[in-house]
Amino acid sequence: MTGSAGVAAGLVLAIGKIKTAIAIQFMNQDLISTVSAFVLRAEDVSKQVTSPEGTLTILSDVSLAIPAGETVALVGASGAGKSTLLAILAGLDEPSSGRVWLNGTEITALDEDGRAAARSRHVGFVFQSFHLVPSLTAIENVMLPLELLGNRHAHAQALEVLEKVGLAARARHYPRQLSGGEQQRVAIARAFVTRPPILFADEPTGNLDAATGERIIKLLFDLNMETRATLVLVTHDQELAARCQRIVRIDAGRITEADTQGFTRERRVR
Amino acid sequence: MTALRFAWQNLFREWKSGEHAVLTLALVISVTALTAVGFFTSRVGRIMEEHAGELIAADLRLESPQPLAEKYFQLAQARGLKTARIESFPSVVLYGENSVLSAIRAVSAGYPLRGRLKVADTLFGVGNPTDAVPAHGEVWAESRLLARLGATLGATLDVGRATLKVTRILDYRPDQGSQFVDLAPTLLINIDDVPATQLIQPGSRVSYVGLFAGAPADVQDFKQALAAVKARSERLVDIADASPQFRKSMDRAGRFINLTAMVSVLLAAIAVAMAARRYAARRFDIVALMKSMGASQRLVLNISMLELLLLGLAASVVGTALGYIAQAGIAFLLKDLVRGDLPSPSFAPAVLGLLAPLAVLVGFALPPLLQLSRVPPARVLRRNIEPPPLRYIVVYGAAMLAVGGMLLYMVRDLRLVGYVLVGVVGSVIVLYAAGWLLVKSLGGLRGSVGVAWRYGMANVVRRGRESIVQVVAFGLGLMVLLHLTVVRHDLLDDWRNGLPEHAPNQFLINIRPEQVPELSTFFTANHIAVPIFVPMVRARLADINGEPVQGHTYTDDRAKNFVDREANLTWSRNLPEGNKIASGSWWRDGDGGGARVSVENGIATALGLKLGDRLTYDVAGIPVTATVTSTREVEWDSFKPNFFMVFSPGVLDSVTGTYITSVHIDSEQRAVLTNFYKRFPEITAIDIDAIIQQVRGVMDDASRAVQYVFLFAILAGITVLLAAIQSTRDERRYESAMLRTLGASRSIVLQGVATEFTVLGVLAGTLAATGASLAGYFFATHMLDLKYHPDLVVWLLGWISGALLVGTAGTLATRSVVNHPPAAILKEAASD
Prior knowledge:
- The complex is a heterodimer.
- Chain A is an alpha/beta fold.
- Chain A has helices at 3-29, 82-89, 112-122, 138-148, 154-164, 180-192, 210-227, 238-242, 261-269, and strands at residues 38-51, 54-67, 71-75, 97-102, 105-106, 123-126, 198-202, 230-234, 246-251, 254-260.
- Chain A has one domain (3-269): Rossmann fold, CATH 3.40.50.
- In chain A, the strands form two sheets. In chain A, strands 6-7-8-3-9-10 form a six-stranded mixed sheet.
- Chain A is globular, with a radius of gyration of 19 Å.
- Chain B has a six-stranded mixed barrel with strand order 2-3-9-6-8-7. In chain B, strands 13-15-20-17-19-18 form a six-stranded mixed β-barrel.
- Helix content of chain B is 55%, strand content 17%.
- Chain B has four domains: 1-52 and 251-412, no CATH class; 53-245, no CATH class; 432-501 and 688-832, no CATH class; 530-663, no CATH class.
- The longest helix of chain B is centred in the N-terminal third of the chain and has 54 residues, at 239-292.
- At the A-B interface, α2, α3 and α4 of A face α1, α7 and α8 of B.
């Protein structure tokens, strides 16, 4: 890392730390709703589902506030509720109770179409299994979110982002003609093409080998830094989590630890 | 706009990948079936619109069983109207040793007053219009008459006592009834040749027709004048009378054939539903993804609806074009029934071609699309999240609405639509239950025949619902074809063979009283048993219990016809053979009961007659009154002269009548018939065998057309099969890969697939043979009063055609699935 980049990263980290400190403080004071610096906020979010065995609580009174530009890792064991939390934070699913604000909009007060509109403006996704449309070429996959927004320059913009992820030459290839890593790079290009303020990633390296995963993560973080987006990712990967400014640990539907890397490091140093 | 762009792109991509093939095929088949029938019926219907006046060959027609008075023609000519005459009667036409019963139409110059005759110079050649009529001593004969006689142009035919030369082939005459021709072929002769034939004798069955045409006002004036002076037995027919009747019979035939086409549409709709379900299921992930990117439910629904709408439009264009071509096939098959030049089709059926795929899509594809639009976006994170299932009322309600709507558009009769819908639902339940039983019955047959067999059988049972749908879809098409080809022929043969061996096969009518002894001598000389000669008088029912009767006061069609026409009456001392008294009692000699009449049970009910009622008949102007003292049950197919009204002796004896009888003539004695025709040309002999042949010919033509339409049902059945294969394609690919990984060879897997589809075909054949036999049983016992004999051929044909058709189509369509390398498929499945 060059010196200036290291300084910049340190600065971002510091700002993140301060914001998180404020967030935790405000959460404690229950004054979250008055603060607009948080790009993503959840308040007492619970999720229950009914199953043949009875009512199952997946999330229980989860509150969380994430400032703009922060990188957050949601970690926890399988079935802990992290994907459900991601889905609710991103407006893909509704909580049984509680409220969620996405970039200042309370998405829990919206219907499905309202949440869809909010997603189109504020959110990008990267998935474990890439979720590329098999019948569309790489560039068409990247164009998709722009076209849904009615963008007339979809092709040019998509090509620009594909260039950034190093796949401009394979723009006309179909997903089946691309390797797993390439597919995920297309997916990342698609997630960033609308320049969303928040990016959600669900196990982005889960289906990739270690080396490819490493390259993908670097790309994800580089683009994130460039666009100053907030990144919320779900992962099992300790190393990946460690690269985020904050790790939110979830266990049996509750947040057991919401800490910044800074605090953790400080504790380690001591 | 966004929706349309996405829809267009999707359509293009899906089309390229072949995923829309089954859906398109099903839609095209339904449109083709409907429009082919629609275009054909429109052609027949247009005869009505374009040639209404030609239907009766005049503006006004006067029909009578008696010669028409000359004053009628004078009245018409005085008003400046053109006139012409027709005398028509049945007679046997002889050419050498060959004889054919034909409808003789003797016409005067000027016939027809509206429309033109068409004549050709070669047998079955294309006719050209002419304004002439056959000259003195010449005849124009229909091709089929000459073909049956073995004669050709220039031949001389014996018509009664006259010998006439064939100078033209009659191709078309405007007034050939309702276009569905009389059974007997027409021979057109000059009216001046009638006396020379000596065929018209007192009591002969002749129809005398006067034709009148001119300016509308003059025709109207003449009509009023004529109505005031004409006799009651003379019937006035104008275009307004003829058209509704013609239109009604056309409507009925049109509705029937449309309903036949609907079977194909319903089967195709099943394929559409299956294909749409797969389409929706395949798009669950993509829709979840689009929704995660912000696509609204409405946008998603709009995209898929527009995509299928575009597909529907394309299918409608292609299907309508194919329907236009296919209608020529129906016209060709029915060319003997619907003769003359059919006008070109109207474009109204194209509207149906446009609406039908839309209705099918809304009814059968919209429910899966609605479900698709409700895919939760969270599916992008957890693939096991499914959209909420649709309520049954939505799925079945939409289908019923679509089918009901289409039916209503076609038959325009709400009550009929209701009946058909109830029938369809009932049939679906019965067929589904039968299919279920058949599929379930396979459970015990897995045995230890071999892995391929077991795999195939297991697949049929495991894919229970798809299997049942396929069995029913194929079974239905095959059932109708089997019924029309095998069972119908069997029934007709059974009926003919069921008649007593020496049942009369020749009806002789128009026998003058003085000819009876001569005829008896002729029979004796030729070793033919002398039959009983039954007297016959033609008369019209004038009043019942003093109240004049009129046809229009009856609702029953039989009663209407009976009252409006002259009926054949007879008298008899003894109860005729084959008759049974149903109520009252028969008369005895010298019981002094006066004039009495015994009425056939059915017509007594239709006319509302009871014992003691007094009937007055107008017998050639003389009123004859008799009391109803009995009703009879009559065995109509005894081939003996049977009558609705039998009078007691002494009532009708004095009125000049003719005799009627029936005799049996062995096939080896048929040469006697030629001598008979030559010696007694004025006696009309009706050959029952020839009539059965003619009936069979008409039925063959009609059922060939229906079979043709049912070929679409078979095609639709194939689309159901393809849709079912398509919906299980991924599953099959995975199974085949698994089996091959476990060491099964490609041929073992293929054998398993072949077993599966052959078994499905045999099940469909079983269902078809059962249905066709049950229909045969119903027709035999309820309509023909026959003992039904099951026919093994029906079952063999059902099994073989089912196994071949479904087995081959299914195996061919699945073959590609087996060809994929197992490793690639398993890897693909693992990454899902």
